[in-house]
Amino acid sequence: MSIDLRSDTVTRPTDAMREAAASASVGDDVYGEDPTVLALEAAAAERLGKPAALFVPSGTMGNQIAVRVHTDRGDLVVADPQAHIITWEVGGMAQLSGVQVRTVDAPRGRYDLDLLAGAMQQRSLHRPGVGLVTLENTHNQRGGWAVPAETVAAVGEIAADAGVPLHIDGARLFNACVATDTDPAEMAAPATSVLFCLSKGLGAPIGSMLVGDEAFIEEARRVRKLFGGGMRQAGIVAAPGLLALDAVDRLAEDHANAARLADGLDGHPGVTVPTPETNIVQLRTDGPTAAALVDAAADAGVLCGAPAPDVVRLCTHRDVSTADIDSAIERLQGVIGTRSPA
Hints:
The C terminus is likely disordered. The protein is built from 14 helices and 13 strands. A hairpin with a 2-residue loop joins β12 and β13.
């Protein structure tokens, strides 16, 4: 049997989630009449300390709604060049909102604050102004690094000083909170809007939450309809989301398994594996290409991905046990080669 470490999006809903979906109270959510969706939105807003929330089908849609609501056409949106909102959302900011991107490098997901402050261009007769600052936490492409609350607060202060909103792409926000022992409301406090996913490490089969103040969510609801995200009896998919919110603490298990996996693979000839902060392990190779290693790993029964020519990505999640991790280490050791001497 294959061990699937491609992503924490491959999790299967629990029996309890399936039962909750089957028995959920429902109504037409476009009319605001689905009681289960309303309960999920209230719970998400409370968890992040914001006045309101909106249930959306995907994290990508939630991010793109936020961009559309916060910006005017032609505005600059500040983001790390490796941010998900740039690299994995099909050019949505340009296509859906008509905005431009101003990149500011953010190693480990953390902006250089001086560079960020210097990027806060003001609108003039000749130049567009920055309309939105974005921050990804945890940062997927950079390796699942958790941005600490104090850094988020500093970014929020720079954005506020420039008079622009801050949007957090927190697809894995709760991983960041668990890794840094931070209350989610504290992490979200500096942001004007926050997106988090229910369908990654939390294990729900579908859905993400967009949170902010009431005016933002009111307009976001309208843009969700524009983008084709209006749902009807959505309580069937919202009910597992309520259970997912109760699964935050168990993310620590995924982090421990990721550290175990990294430790078991680091030190082999031709590869280095930094100790992960959360549930994403990045194996860097200076030998075979990442794609070749991914193919060989699949033959050995371990599914993983290659986000870059020299990087293999492995992601732990609720459907992978510690025993599975040990088996994956053994199989991958055979793929990579004999462990080098200590």
